[in-house]
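SEVERITY: medium
COMPONENT: batch folding queue
REPORTER: lab tech (J.R.)

DESCRIPTION
The queue accepted two submissions in a row. Attaching both inputs and their returned structure tokens so the on-call engineer can compare them side by side.

ATTACHMENT 1
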Amino acid sequence: MAGTGGRVVFLPRTKPPVVKSVSAADVQRGNIGSRWRKSCDITSSLARNFRRAVVQGESEAVFKTVQSILGAQQRNQAEVITSLVLERSSPEPLKEALMTAICIGMQPLVELITSLFHEFPGEEYNGCRHSCAFPPHVTPLMLACMCNSFDVVEFLLLRHHRIRLPHRPDCCCEKCADESVRSSRAVVTLDTYVAISSDAFLWLACRDPLLAAFKLAADLEVCCQVDEGYKSAYWQLHENVMATTVRIVEQCWHMEDVKILLSQKDGISLSDSKLQFPRLRMALDCHMRTLTKYFCDVPSVWHHCLSGCVIVI
């Protein structure tokens, strides 16, 4: 954790256990984008040659480039992606190639494929319209978040990919009030919550990951109560977000860092603004059982956090 210009920035000291694509040393130094910048430098000439080979229809050159990234063991995947990027009659095959590369989790390949979208401006942000494998509402960034691929999520965020936040199932706006729309969008809403509940999204897309996790957990609790059809799915997402909050706190280097983290007042109600650790109050209000249990299980943390502070539960 570090303070910059009066703003608290949270820098994980180790990578989350589910993450395989982020170097802990890079994250620890606040240098999480270094690998992307390095790969960008390495593949700049490769990207130009790749684009030229695609435009000229040189299938052998395209295949060799793709296979050099994927490795010899994924020859079938290389053949599929090669055939997709060479089909340039519409953006749809290219979007499917991008989604396939995201599923594989190879950020350099994702970078190469996105370089081909100059012929179809804006299409790289959209889902596939006619794919048998990918629903049209799932965008590249949503898929990368679902796969929890930190490298790919960061790369897409730097290319200005965004996720439109969902309306909760209990929303009563004019659009959501239409029963036909509500039923047809239930899966879309769930998939969007799956994406924004990922560690990759919370860490990389949110200025304040802990506050975002608290608000998301509260929304998911409402979703569990309102959407009976997907109650178990929303409940599992809620459990995952609670586990994420523990991992966020565990990244603090010292007890003073924990105090700074819990004393932040952004998103706090006026009645709680005078508490010494309002984020702890928020955790209790949001029923963050895993996080509060973590504090109880670590006596030194609980003692330091509650010393001189009275909290009424």
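ATTACHMENT 2
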Amino acid sequence: MNRACLLAAIALALVATPARARAAADGDGAYGRLKGDLTFVGGLGAGVVAATGRPVLASDLRLRYLDAAGVALGFEEGDALARTSRSGELRRAFLAGVELRPLFPVRFLKAQETGRRFLDLVLDSIALDLGTWWPIRYGSGARRPGMYTGLAVEAPLSGGGSGLWLRLSAQLRWAAPRLEGDLDPSGRSVMLGVGLAWHQVFGPHLVQRGDEPLE
């Protein structure tokens, strides 16, 4: 029995050691995201309107505070990937909204990190988007703003706070007539997207632990 307990203890120690080593190597679990108070994000990718298969080239700019909440601006160009003159098809769109990433502050403050850098960064990247979009369609002069909400997740390809990330997103969008009660199915759409984004942490260290900025 004592030998079995000893072997079990050794096995647990061997399993736990890599996790502790990773956590120690990466600091306190922020993984570089709190080296500055602000994170600038520039992204480029592609998307597709789920119902019609219409592809678009997409770009966006984001500014986050403590990598937890921020604002986002986006632009989509349909003609860059596939030209069409079919009435009602999305030609281009402008987007402006807010982004919330609630898991990072909650997990960080409660010390709920797993110690695995990649997994922690992916979990903390889960984001909720909410905002306004201005679609420009073929055969329609109306450019009234609609509304969108969405989910996104990112995975680090290099670095931690600053570096290159892969971004996957899905948005549900409503055109202005749909918000006003028009039940035309074309007034609601789903946009699926994939792209690359560069994160750059910067800004004064307003959030500190003692005299040292959080890593």
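NOTES FROM REPORTER
The first strand starts at residue 38 and ends at 49.
No errors were logged for either attachment.
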